[in-house]
Design brief:
Elements (H helix, E strand, L loop, with lengths): L7 E7 L2 E8 L13 E7 L12 H11 L3 E5 L16 H16 L7 E9 L1 H12 L6 E5 L5 H9 L4 H7 L1 E4 L2 E4 H9 L2 H5 L5 E7 L7 H11 L4 E7 L9 H16 L6
Parallel strand pairs: 3-4, 3-5, 5-6, 6-9, 9-10
Antiparallel strand pairs: 1-2, 2-4, 7-8
Helix pairs in contact: 1-9, 2-3
């Protein structure tokens, strides 16, 4: 298996069950090389997504980052992809837990000895989870990157699922979504989430990228809301013209990945 382009697949154990993950390695290096200065990028997928994301967005991006010298971890949150659980396990606090458990597990691997820096990247719902994780533990992450994230996830879900019968939702404990179910606790957490307050004191380097043709997470007002509430951060932004949700066009995907690579390069060890 080519562990630079496709990653090495494994299951990592957490107190709540296993998470299926893929770890990409920089090419032409001894995997157990203990040299200092290694860098890890952790990629968080979107709502009902997987560690591959739409048209392989995450796998392709991770391969690109690995070829630029990074180790890259992408994993399925609980209830998603090949990980344990069901769609009833999908809500922000669970995914924040999964993020920290995944990082704790992988950074203890012998292959990551000499790790100097961890970067966090989240797409869509994963962008919200990334922002909450970074604001909770800012010392863990050198940078935060948000790809097409909904600043107000509750608003965007309500727009997608309207009309919502909240009496029925609270009574039965879930909202039917095709063949799956969304836990009422997801909506409870979103109703009580104050992302603006969580980010108010965040001061680390942040990159916000939005697609101007995103019809799932409209770039406005979401993009401007991120900028407004990250005003105390070291903020960079980019708009990808004509990009839909997931950067499904090759040119748009390459642009988003290239902009991210340039951003990350500014914060490498020794820079």
């Amino acid at each position: 298996m080519d562990n630079t382009n496709f990653g090495e697949h494994f299951a990592l154990q957490t107190p709540k069950g296993h998470l299926t993950a893929s770890l990409h390695f920089p090419p032409h290096r001894d995997r157990y090389d203990a040299r200092e200065g290694k860098e890890l990028i952790v990629m968080l997928h979107g709502f009902s997504g997987t560690r591959y994301e739409t048209y392989g967005l995450f796998e392709k991006a991770a391969a690109h980052f690995a070829h630029h010298g990074y180790h890259v971890l992408r994993f399925d949150f609980r209830g998603c992809g090949d990980s344990h659980g069901t769609s009833m396990d999908v809500y922000p606090s669970a995914q924040i837990e999964d993020t920290f458990w995944a990082i704790e597990y992988v950074t203890a691997l012998p292959e990551l000895r000499g790790l100097a820096t961890c970067h966090l990247l989240g797409f869509s719902f994963g962008g919200v989870v990334a922002a909450l994780s970074a604001s909770a533990r800012p010392e863990m992450f050198r940078t935060l990157t948000i790809w097409e994230g909904p600043f107000n996830l509750g608003r965007e879900l309500k727009r997608a699922f309207e009309p919502i019968d909240y009496d029925a939702l609270w009574a039965q404990g879930y909202l039917a979504n095709g063949d799956s179910r969304l836990n009422a606790h997801l909506f409870y957490e979103l109703d009580h989430l104050d992302l603006a307050a969580s980010l108010s004191s965040y001061s680390g380097p942040v990159l916000v990228i939005s697609g101007t043709a995103d019809d799932i997470v409209p770039f406005q007002p979401n993009h401007q809301e991120w900028l407004e509430h990250l005003r105390n951060a070291q903020l960079s932004e980019a708009l990808i013209k004509g990009a839909d949700h997931g950067f499904t066009g090759d040119a748009q995907r390459c642009q988003a990945v290239d902009v991210t690579t340039q951003f990350l390069a500014r914060y490498r060890p020794g820079q």
